[in-house]
Amino acid sequence: MTAGLRLGPMLRHVSATSAAIWVETDAPCRVTVLAGDTSATADTFTVHGHHYAICELTGLTPGSSTPYEVRLDGGRVWPEPDSPHPPSLVCTPAPDTPVRILFGSCRTPTDHSTSAVLRYGVDVVRAYGLRLADRRRAAMEGHEAERTDDLGDEAGPAEPTVLLMIGDQVYADELQQPMVEFLRRRREGGPREADAAQSQPPRDEVVFYDEYAELYRQAWSDPDVRWLLSTVPTLMMFDDHDIRDDWNTSGTWRREIAENPWWRPRITSGLGAYWVYQHLGNLSPEERAADPVFAAVRASRGDAAEALDGFAWRAHVEPHSYRWSYRHDIGRTRVLMVDTRCGRSVEDDSRRSILGPEGTVWLDSQLTGDVDHLVVASTLPFLMPEGVHYLEAWNEAVCAGAWGRRLRGPAERLRQELDLEHWPAFQRSFRAVEESVLSVASGRRGEPPASVLFLGGDVHFSYLAGARPRKGASSGTRIAQLVCSPTCNWLQPMMRRMMWVSVRALTGLLCRLLARMAGVRAPALAWRLEAGPWYDNALATLVLDGRGSEAVWEHSPVSTRAVEELSPGRTGRPGMRELVRYRLTG
């Protein structure tokens, strides 16, 4: 029987001379990637009956664009026959050229039907893929792309150097109907999960590895999204919904969730699947070769489920045992992808850390100068609207006992109910990063960069916040928070109203006084929203050119009337338009 592609190919970590291509196949096989005169081969490894490979192309030319194909046991499976998409390319960054970082978060996979667009809005990841395919096709044919979309399009920024998917790549606890139906069929008395009855899994959430594998397949199998991920280098970091809403928000949350018999298989499967589907491709060739989990998986005879499950459970109970954060350098730009979920220390409310001790040391060691730009991507925004910042800081203090033991319980319930678990709710961690950033900007850690830019998602609205030292003169380093969220989801009307209130100056003042009454000190940084908030589905591009930088948010504007007027059965072909462009430095 000939093996076929189940998912992928996905272009992952790319440097000036190397590129990693990840695939999932439906049977064990040998995978070969051919790109011009370069090739790479890898045998699949197996986890819980699923088969994967990652091929590393090396010796590539910086600044090159090379079509590639994928073969399984010698038979070509990519590009697919009669594909409407242009060839997938491996594009390596060239020295001294602008770096274009495309980023966004929070994507719910939909069928793009009228009802789906009315509920979640346009999937801008798909819309971006459609536009990029048009541009590539037009370049091949030597003329400008035709504007054939239903809802309008613009040329947009040049091709991205890398796509950062910063959180909630899948929603394991908020399922679409096809996934709900898959769970029902899988769990109907079948022998494949003998302990399903004992673990009593919730009917509308994934729990087991097979279910996570299907969740990823449904999220990344849309033809336009699949092609985009095959041809744009992609780096990822999890957030809570990749595992479960409010994951690791507090010690109380961890203790309560652990009482469910399905939690151990859930966290084991979720972290194991994340390592396979997302994290493995984040690593450079050297990091992958040194990764003990990769070594254990490849050394396993037959199925590596036991090795991966053991690692995943240990990563949950001993967060210091594995570092999910990583660094990716592109020329003189340093990108830090920061884990703010699995590595948390939350058992002691008086000594909470969003990074954990090891994560704190690692991030501090990476925040140095002698680069043009420091880009810190954490799924949770570092700089929240001022009212939200002080509310979360106040809540953390009350949970720790600032207003007495009797109010700790109510404060914990409020924390979980309102999701008060971002960076401001971890003041020790927030202040440590503040201190490091100000040290970098002052030149105490090498030549100051032109900018320190925090990228964030999670919150289902987008904005730009500019920051400066609260005391003393500002340095020449631009400090800013850029948030782009969601790419396909929505913020409930009540939450929109709350956000509108939170960005008002009076709200910030009142929450600041409340926090001060709980003993919270003012932060060393002062910041304000310079643009936003916006609630549309969006993707943002950060353009870094020498010491200059610019941010562009794009969306796919569509009115309810325009969607409803589409003929029955049509999904529409969305376009992309610029939402705002903002010069940051230079």
TrEMBL record:
<dbReference type="InterPro" id="IPR056702">
    <property type="entry name" value="DUF7800"/>
</dbReference>
<dbReference type="InterPro" id="IPR018946">
    <property type="entry name" value="PhoD-like_MPP"/>
</dbReference>
<dbReference type="Pfam" id="PF09423">
    <property type="entry name" value="PhoD"/>
</dbReference>
<dbReference type="Pfam" id="PF25077">
    <property type="entry name" value="DUF7800"/>
</dbReference>
<protein>
    <submittedName>
        <fullName>Phosphodiesterase/alkaline phosphatase D</fullName>
    </submittedName>
</protein>
<dbReference type="InterPro" id="IPR029052">
    <property type="entry name" value="Metallo-depent_PP-like"/>
</dbReference>
<feature type="domain" description="DUF7800">
    <location>
        <begin position="3"/>
        <end position="88"/>
    </location>
</feature>
<feature type="domain" description="PhoD-like phosphatase metallophosphatase">
    <location>
        <begin position="159"/>
        <end position="471"/>
    </location>
</feature>
<dbReference type="InterPro" id="IPR038607">
    <property type="entry name" value="PhoD-like_sf"/>
</dbReference>
